[in-house]
């Protein structure tokens, strides 16, 4: 039986489709991508931001095809093959790209050890506070007003905590860094909770509005973002509480995100 979430648009569209077309030639790094996935977009942004050569291969992770399971036994995107060896998990891959391609500028982690550690602290905050709160809000049902209100307040609290650390226009100032990369896919998708779950950037704060606008207008972000209506079909399942992704299952069960 087909996975209930497997019926998604098969390829990237809009600016993202143009980017895909530019990355079809074989390279030492093959990027196994699901155009729709926010975790996946993190790695795609980093590849584009730093001009790292890669071959793009679209994968529908819900179909669990045998070849892809040899790359990532969990069957999740993003994943890469680097010189014939498989690596996966978005945060692992972001740091791997920093290590494997040090000469490709700009680097997304600062050179200063303290600043690198500070980046990792706030990446951890995004992973453990921002993203789970976003997912809980997305999946809270309109007839669960208390749960919806709690999820919205948790998201605002997590974003305000991060906002206080943003130097502007990006997290670390003028330089676009890994904290921005890790966060921006959810900024790009916040229109879903704005339209359906009463979220407002303005309610986070004026500085957040400016930061979010700077993130979503970054060229590497625009080049890896598909047409909005294609995302909506997928997120409608989350809004109805029907999504069966590993992230959705974890949220329902009260577990950490995979």
Description:
By secondary structure, the protein is α+β, with helices and mostly antiparallel strands. The protein has 13 helices and four strands. Strands 2-1-3-4 form a four-stranded mixed sheet. Strand 3 and strand 4 (85-88) form a beta hairpin. 38% of the residues are buried.
Radius of gyration, rounded?
Answer: 18 Å
Global morphology? globular
Broad structural category:
alpha+beta
Number of helices: 13
Short description:
By secondary structure, this protein is of the alpha+beta class.
List the SSEs and their pairings.
Layout: H1 14-21, E1 29-33, H2 38-50, E2 55-58, H3 66-71, E3 79-82, E4 85-88, H4 90-100, H5 113-139, H6 145-163, H7 178-188, H8 190-196, H9 201-204, H10 206-216, H11 219-222, H12 228-239, H13 246-253
Parallel strand pairs: 1-2
Antiparallel strand pairs: 1-3, 3-4
Helix pairs in contact: 2-4, 2-7, 5-6, 5-7, 5-13
Structural key phrases:
7% strand; 13 helices; single chain; 258 residues; alpha+beta; 4 strands
């Amino acid at each position: 039986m087909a996975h209930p979430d497997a019926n998604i648009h098969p390829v990237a569209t809009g600016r993202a489709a143009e980017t895909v077309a530019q990355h079809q030639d074989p390279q030492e790094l093959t990027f196994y991508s699901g155009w729709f996935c926010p975790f996946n977009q993190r790695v795609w942004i980093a590849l584009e931001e730093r001009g790292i050569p890669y071959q793009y291969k679209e994968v529908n992770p819900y179909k669990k095809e045998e070849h892809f399971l040899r790359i990532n036994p969990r069957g999740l995107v993003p994943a890469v093959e680097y010189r014939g060896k498989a690596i996966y998990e978005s945060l692992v891959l972001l740091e791997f790209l920093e290590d494997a391609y040090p000469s490709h500028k700009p680097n997304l982690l600062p050179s200063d050890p303290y600043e690198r550690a500070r980046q990792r602290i706030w990446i951890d905050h995004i992973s453990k506070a921002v993203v789970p709160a976003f997912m809980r809000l997305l999946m809270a049902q309109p007839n669960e007003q208390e749960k919806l209100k709690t999820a919205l307040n948790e998201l605002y609290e997590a974003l305000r905590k991060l906002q206080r650390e943003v130097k502007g226009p990006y997290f670390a100032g003028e330089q676009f860094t890994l904290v921005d990369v890790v966060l921006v896919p959810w900024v790009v998708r916040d229109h879903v909770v704005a339209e359906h779950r009463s979220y407002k950037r303005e309610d986070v704060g004026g500085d957040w509005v400016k930061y979010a606008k700077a993130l979503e207008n970054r060229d590497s972000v625009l080049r890896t973002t598909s047409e909005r209506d294609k995302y909506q079909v997928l997120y409608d399942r989350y809004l109805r509480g029907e999504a069966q992704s590993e992230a959705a299952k974890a949220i329902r069960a009260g577990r950490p995100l995979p």
